[in-house]
Amino acid sequence: LIIGVPREVFAGEKRVATVPEVVEKLVKLGFRVIVESGAGDAANCSDETYKAAGAEIADNAATLWASSDIVFKVRGPNAEEVGLLREGGTLISFIWPAQNPELMQQLAAKKATVLAIDSLPRQLSRAQKMDALTSMAGISGYRAVIEAANAFGRFFNGQMTAAGKVPPAKVFIAGAGVAGLAAIGTAANLGAIVRANDTRAEVADQVKSLGGEFVKVDYEEEGSGGGGYAKVMSEGFQQAQREMYAKQAKEVDIIITTALIPGKPAPKLITAEMVKSMKPGSVIVDMAAEQGGNCELTEPGQAVVKHGVTIIGYTDLPSRLAKQSSTLYANNLLRLTEELCKTKDGIINVNMEDDAIRGLTVIKEGEITWPAPPPKIA
Ligand code: NAD
């Protein structure tokens, strides 16, 4: 079969769904790979490098989509791209079916088979190698620290120099899931003093192992909402948490927020008052900006200065590290393709008896199969 990789059309999107190193492996699995000309330019993958790895280059999107049995994408397709998808074709991409019912209908009308990488049952240990949410969150956490360091007027590490003594920066991370843990590790490696908080107390050891200090909220309440995710906390807990965060805001130089609750708006953890109380020159990176933000003053997609504090609400952090994120995403899709093509003959079998594949498959030959029943074994 032919795997096609179009250029991403979403404004500002620099990632691409496969990279030359992975093309070689897809070809070894028996597929022909066609890449749209220029698809990898923004991720430092030229047409020539794809060709050298065994891909063919299509001059334009229409040719690419028309030739492809299976399309690999990063962002879900827009209406025009759905129009270009072959009747009965297969699409592997981020889809977010709950948020995009219209797109689901359009794809179903095309009799497509759609594997939504965001719908992977992440709790299956076997699924980890395909978990693009985790790879992208890790990159975002790293990049959030780099953005903070770039906007901050001082060193992260403490230094004794002939020109004077510099204290280390203090960084507070709200939410220690995948992105938060990556941010903790990165900030600690840069030499900052790192503190973190999460409503799920079970992450305390992970925070410590990465060089951070876990700061507890002085209120007993279990924060796990099931499946490793958080729940909405009681008003009493939220009040105690606000008091602790208000104290941290006065002390630290950088706050990075990552707190999310599945299916709910992001919890508002940093109030305008807390921002006002921070030292001038402090930086907040709000990684929850797209879901409404953890900080009251965040403007999604923007970096703004309010009360002397830079508040960064970029919603394209993985795309800002396009080569790295494209490479990890391409590897996640390669692992998925290996699962779909155990026979290594360039043919795929979307096996609905397989828990991981079942979870990902949101449309099968035009029939909407989302949401999947929970997987049987972890
Ligand atoms: P997420 O992006 O949904 O949320 C980020 C973090 O914010 C979470 O740690 C959450 O507990 C925290 N949070 C939510 N509300 C908060 C609040 N009010 N105050 C402070 N913190 C708050 O989470 P994620 O990064 O996708 O990870 C969620 C869980 O899934 C983790 O336990 C992770 O280890 C797990 N996970 C497991 C696998 C696997 O088993 N293969 C893969 C990926 C993730």
TrEMBL record:
Shown residues in whole-protein numbering: 3 to 380 of 530
GO molecular function term, any single one: proton-translocating NAD(P)+ transhydrogenase activity
Protein name: NAD(P) transhydrogenase subunit alpha
GO terms for cellular component: plasma membrane
Domain of life: Bacteria
Species classification: Bacteria, Pseudomonadati, Pseudomonadota, Betaproteobacteria, Neisseriales
Catalytic reaction(s) noted: NAD(+) + NADPH + H(+)(in) = NADH + NADP(+) + H(+)(out)
Keyword set, alphabetical order: Cell inner membrane, Cell membrane, Membrane, NAD, NADP, Nucleotide-binding, Translocase, Transmembrane, Transmembrane helix
Domain Alanine dehydrogenase/pyridine nucleotide transhydrogenase NAD(H)-binding stretches: 149-313
Native source organism of the sequence: Formivibrio citricus
Membrane topology: Multi-pass membrane protein
Enzyme class: translocase
E.C. numbers: 7.1.1.1
Subcellular localization, as worded in the UniProt entry: Cell inner membrane
